[in-house]
Amino acid sequence: MANWKSLVFTTAGQKMIADAIAEKQPKFTIAVASTDDHSEDSAATLANLTDISTKSQTVNVSRVIKSTDVLDQVFVTFPTSDVSTAYRMKTVGLYARLPDDMTDTLYAVGISTEPDYVAAGALDGTNANINLSFLIGVSADAHFEASITSDGMVTEQEADVLLEPKANDKEVTHPADIAMETLNGLSLEIDTSGLGINDYPRFVAHVYYNGAGIAQTVSYAGVPLMSELLMFADLKVNGQTMIPKFWMMQLKAAAPDFDTKNFTTNRSSDGTWMYIISKKPDTDQATIGIHCLNAKFKEVA
């Protein structure tokens, strides 16, 4: 059985990480096995790879399982029955796509320190499978970390190691660090009457102090600082109900005074904005402004 180094994420894979946090979840598509020898390459060199040059065998991803709130397990199987030329599996590349892109992009690269020999089953009748399992987790600094095993099973110990604090405690995976949560169960009603039959409402969100949506004691021509928020919009009733979910770690950093349990809502006069205004006493009023880009918020009852 091969021994694998931990995966190294390519530059393109790291870009997908940022897109995933911004609600563009990558879809893992294919894996490529190769005789390319990258065992002496640095992590930086591996990160700069854009493709696996020698493609000895290409297979579709078998399945993806969300093992926990912060872990995905990606399974691939390399059957020897599809192989016409025997090879040693020295490198494997995991590819992914973004929802708006049909291109398979090299996401991560794994290097074997003891490569498996893959027989030419298509010629000699050998019928065996090499099963690989990629364990991918989100760390506190919003980067992915991963391990790879060659039996298709990730042990409980390996999962625990991935989540254990590292020596400098900067790569600890805390679920709270990546939590996307509602504001005390807040839901907002959307007027979708102006949308096409296959369209759905879309939103962006910002947080700021002393801005639109509140009675201002100091007049601002624009707000002093506005931060764009990462927000997931869960849609129900054919898009007529929207439940906003925010990355709480980001919200806390941008507006530490925002009270996620005690706030009011205020609809703009044209219905394109909804202002969520913190009621935390003795502070400047922090406000989240949600902009509906192609529909309108209904009047708040």
Summarize the structure in words.
β13 and β14 form a beta hairpin. The strands form 3 sheets. The protein has an 8-stranded antiparallel beta sheet. Strands 9, 10, 13, 14 and 18 form a 5-stranded antiparallel beta sheet that branches. Strands 12-11-17-16-15 form a 5-stranded antiparallel beta sheet, covered by helices on one side. The protein has 301 residues and is mainly beta. The protein is built from 5 helices and 18 strands. The chain folds into 2 domains: 167 residues, no CATH class; 118 residues, Immunoglobulin-like (Sandwich).
Stretches with pLDDT under 50, minimum 5 residues:
139-143, 152-159, 169-173, 215-221
What portion of residues is helical? Answer: 10-25%
Sheet with most strands: strand arrangement:
1-6-5-2-3-4-7-8
Biggest beta-sheet profile: 8 strands, antiparallel
Query: Structural class of the helix and strand makeup?
Result: mainly beta
| Number of structural domains | 2
DSSP E strands, number? 18
**What shape does the CA trace take?**
elongated
Give the helices and strands as they follow along the chain: EHEHEEEEHEEHEEEEEEHEEEE
- Distance linking N and C termini: 63 Å
Query: What's the helix count?
Result: 5
The averaged pLDDT comes out at 79
Share in β-strands:
35-45%
**Integer-rounded radius of gyration:** 24 Å
